[in-house]
Design a protein that fits this description.
Layout (H helix, E strand, L loop, with lengths): L1 E5 L8 H8 L3 E3 L11 H8 L7 E5 L1 H13 L3 E4 L21 E7 L7 H10 L6 E7 L8 H13 L3 H8 L1
Parallel strand pairs: 1-2, 1-3, 3-4, 4-5, 5-6
Helix pairs in contact: 1-5, 2-3
Keywords: Hydrolase
Organism: Salinimicrobium flavum
GO molecular function, one term: hydrolase activity
Length: 171
């Protein structure tokens, strides 16, 4: 299984979180410069032209990009505090025929960087009745995602997708 992880605006994938993801498959974490590349979503889509991506995971600005990348690829997505409505850096969203079957979205209720209400408003505006949308509103969670919490959400995400059957059949 191939997992793409999209980091936030001023962050990278930590070794601890990469280790969590590697339990489920091969991890690809492109270094995205959201500041200089206004077409970062298209750049991500073009980055691995011969690789079959199975799942998209992203956080903050990477959650925003992951939302659109997952739609374009028709792949399930796990998004942590995605900056889907407002961002401090402008990004072009490519016009793509998109559909997505599963989005698991984690929203920290005390996030002061990506305002929870903005994310919920965006999801209502972009509502698609065929999407399996799973929201996890977490009291006390801010913008940063602790490793143990990340591990729980990633495990839950893969347990809720068809990949769980693939993993169990391979063991």
């Amino acid at each position: 299984m191939n997992i793409i992880y999209l980091h936030g605006l001023d962050s990278k994938l930590s070794p601890e979180k990469k280790s969590v993801l590697e339990q489920f498959g091969n991890v690809y974490a492109p270094d995205v410069n959201y500041y200089e590349d206004r077409d970062a979503i298209q750049t991500i889509l073009d980055y691995y032209p011969n690789l079959e991506i199975d799942a998209v995971i992203g956080s903050s600005m990477g959650g925003f990009a992951g939302y659109h990348v997952a739609n374009a690829l028709d792949k399930p997505a796990l998004l942590f505090n995605p900056a889907v409505k407002k961002r401090s850096v402008h990004q072009n969203i490519p016009s793509l025929n998109s559909f997505n079957r599963l989005k698991q979205i984690v929203i920290g209720q005390v996030d002061e960087v990506v305002i929870p209400r903005d994310t919920l408003e965006f999801l209502l505006e972009d509502f698609n009745p065929v999407t399996d949308l799973r929201l996890h509103l977490v009291p006390g969670l801010g913008h940063n995602i602790p490793v143990e919490f990340f591990k729980e959400e990633v495990s839950s995400f893969f347990a809720n997708t068809c990949f769980n059957r693939k993993i169990n059949n391979q063991v």
